[in-house]
Amino acid sequence: MSTPAPSRIFAPGLLDGQVALVTGGGTGLGRAAATELAACGAQVVIAGRRAEVLEATAARIGAAASVVCGDIRDEDDARRIVDTALEHHGRLDLLVNNAGGQYFVPAEAIATRGWQAVFRLNVDGTTRMAELAVERAMRPAGRGTIVNVTLSPHHGLAGMTHSSAARAAVESLTAAWARQWAADGIAVVAIAAGHFQTDALDKYPEPVRAGVARTVPLQRLGQPHEHGWLVALLASPLGRAMSGTVVTLDGARDNWFGPWPPPTLTDGDGDVPTEERRPAATR
Ligand SMILES: CCCCCCCCCCC/C=C/C(=O)SCCNC(=O)CCNC(=O)[C@H](O)C(C)(C)COP(=O)(O)OP(=O)(O)OC[C@H]1O[C@@H](n2cnc3c(N)ncnc32)[C@H](O)[C@@H]1OP(=O)(O)O
Ligand SMILES: NC(=O)C1=CN([C@@H]2O[C@H](COP(=O)(O)OP(=O)(O)OC[C@H]3O[C@@H](n4cnc5c(N)ncnc54)[C@H](OP(=O)(O)O)[C@@H]3O)[C@@H](O)[C@H]2O)C=CC1
């Protein structure tokens, strides 16, 4: 197994001896975060539901990475994920709550089950992982950092109102947990991410993808490694001083702008289509 290439921007050994758990660490932004954390010296445990995806990422990162399969929406799985990290390494310094998502849909077309599915993943799953990490690892150790990754809801996500509400809830939980767990030596911060160039964007309708980079004032999408840098910064001693903060990384674009319905997204009847269902095998 190879050792990770050193970080391009952080001092060697910044996170030496630390152990990080990254949910959704097999793909996209989670993979970028895990890669940079390893480059800074951390041991990283990446979690998700698909073993083959996790194994491929762990092989890319090298000996610093290990995998644990599980669904953060399931209490037993979530506990096993945290316990596996602890059993493997004897400590857990950083939890990156990165697993999350939603589907693109006009607000009035969201079924109750869809609303609940998005909350179950983004709010309940994030809460469960944070509470387990605190109870089982961080409070007993008297220290730890939790980084919650959200899809920035700061302009209101008109085509993803379920996620808009869920991500705002996570940002509010971040501030509340930072206060609640400060006496335990635990810092809690959030990253409000804008549009990043990951495979996940492939699922959005073609007109969305085609136009999206041009709408960012920076004139480009965020790069996953830039997100990884921010996660590593928040894992550093500076992150502890930033507890309770939401850091926005969005190229000055956020995730929404303009009127509803968005002119580029309406079909011939003036309606905005709902994202296609994912094939059952990937759910
Ligand atoms: C002018 C401005 C334009 C801006 C445009 C911006 C758009 C680009 C944004 C780019 C930013 C990127 C953001 C990202 O977050 S990228 C990462 C994305 N990754 C994911 O979203 C992956 C994870 N997502 C999911 O797993 C699912 O979306 C979900 C959260 C729903 C999964 O939950 P679950 O597995 O429990 O869900 P089910 O599939 O079982 O469905 C449960 C119910 O949910 C409803 N549903 C789900 N999908 C759809 C759909 N496509 N259409 C309609 N309804 C849906 C439905 O009610 C399901 O119940 P039923 O099965 O009974 O029908
Ligand atoms: N790409 C972008 O532009 C942006 C993304 N974000 C957010 O950043 C995070 C990562 O996004 P990105 O990498 O792009 O997208 P991905 O869809 O690639 O990442 C989602 C990850 O979470 C895992 N996951 C999903 N559901 C669960 C679950 N129930 N239990 C455990 N793991 C789960 C997935 O793996 P598996 O399916 O194997 O479980 C996958 O690795 C998400 O929260 C996303 O909403 C925010 C802003 C912009």
Automatic annotation (TrEMBL):
Reaction equation(s) it catalyzes: (2E)-dodecenoyl-CoA + NADPH + H(+) = dodecanoyl-CoA + NADP(+); (2E)-tetradecenoyl-CoA + NADPH + H(+) = tetradecanoyl-CoA + NADP(+); (2E)-decenoyl-CoA + NADPH + H(+) = decanoyl-CoA + NADP(+); (2E)-octenoyl-CoA + NADPH + H(+) = octanoyl-CoA + NADP(+)
Broad class of where this protein is predominantly found:
other
Leading EC class: oxidoreductase
Which Gene3D superfamilies does the record cross-reference, listed alphabetically?
A: NAD(P)-binding Rossmann-like Domain
Compositionally biased spans, kind Basic and acidic residues: 274-283
Q: Does the keyword Protein transport apply?
A: no
Q: Where in the cell is it found?
A: Peroxisome
User: Where does the source fall among the domains of life?
Assistant: Bacteria
Q: What is its EC number?
A: 1.3.1.38
Q: Which residues form the Ketoreductase domain?
A: 18-194
Pathway it works in: Lipid metabolism
Q: Which keywords has UniProt assigned to this entry?
A: Fatty acid biosynthesis, Fatty acid metabolism, Lipid biosynthesis, Lipid metabolism, NADP, Oxidoreductase, Peroxisome, Phosphoprotein
The GO terms this record gives for MF are: trans-2-enoyl-CoA reductase (NADPH) activity
Which InterPro entries does the record match to this protein?
Answer: KR_dom, NAD(P)-bd_dom_sf, Peroxisomal_t2-enoyl-CoA_red, SDR_fam
Q: Where is this region: Disordered?
A: 257-283
Q: How does it assemble?
A: Interacts with PEX5, probably required to target it into peroxisomes.
- What this protein is called in its record is Peroxisomal trans-2-enoyl-CoA reductase
In its UniProt entry, the species of origin is given as Conexibacter arvalis
